[in-house]
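Quick one, T. Sequence first:
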Amino acid sequence: MATLGNPQNTIAILQKYNFNFQKKFGQNFLIDTHVLDKIIRAAGITGEDFVLEIGPGIGTMTQYLCENARQVLAVEIDRMLIPILADTLSAYDNVEILNEDILKVDIHRIALEKNGGRPIKVVANLPYYITTPIIMGLFESHVPIDSITVMVQREVADRMQVGPGTKDYGALSLAVQYYARPEIVANVPPNCFMPRPKVGSAVIRLVRHEKPPVEAADEKLMFRLIRASFNQRRKTLANGLSNAGELGISKEMIAGAIEALGLPSSVRGEALTLEQFAGLSNIICGMLHESGGN
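Structure tokens:
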């Protein structure tokens, strides 16, 4: 069985099928066995595990997953890759290929059918433009997930794990940290891929919290406040939230909530911790409840 982590074997399979890289799918295939080993180790894949792989490509990582996991379901959007996967994974009987868009797949049902409803491990080498919607979709839908180990653009990995007051800190940092514990496990330079991307990549592991580190009475409201406060980074938190018409919260209420939280009126959103955003949303939630109750 030709290991695809070897560049020659990757070139051979692409030539055999006369494969053309699709820009719209952001395809970059890994050609570095050390990185593949690191991903498997970071994801902690054992013979007990059911793994959902997003974007298997030509099956490079899938081969490694099949060697280590009990069962693998690989979801690939590009139908041109399906015959290639059937070929490169022909030696394995513990893998299933699904030609679907992951955003339209019922992962709850998969976890139930394939893993008895127990938390699954997700491994992915994602096209960079769709990283955030996929990761947030997995978390927000409350699918049973143990961890997500994912290859992303280095800059996005940084954004996921930074704290307040840094330029990379934003809605993505807060959202990821609300649901999971992020840790960058490997930096991956462009020459580890074919074709070479223009930017560096990183493998980040997101281990799902059993319960969120903060208590938000209304999770959706908290995230709406977070998004609104980072939409206009240069404005104060009070102005950013007041200008967000979709929130429908009065200027006075916002000012009162910021004061009740013990923060100065000039504070910016990027200075608030996750805990402070949860506190702010809980105060506003209480105020809305009271005003609605009169």
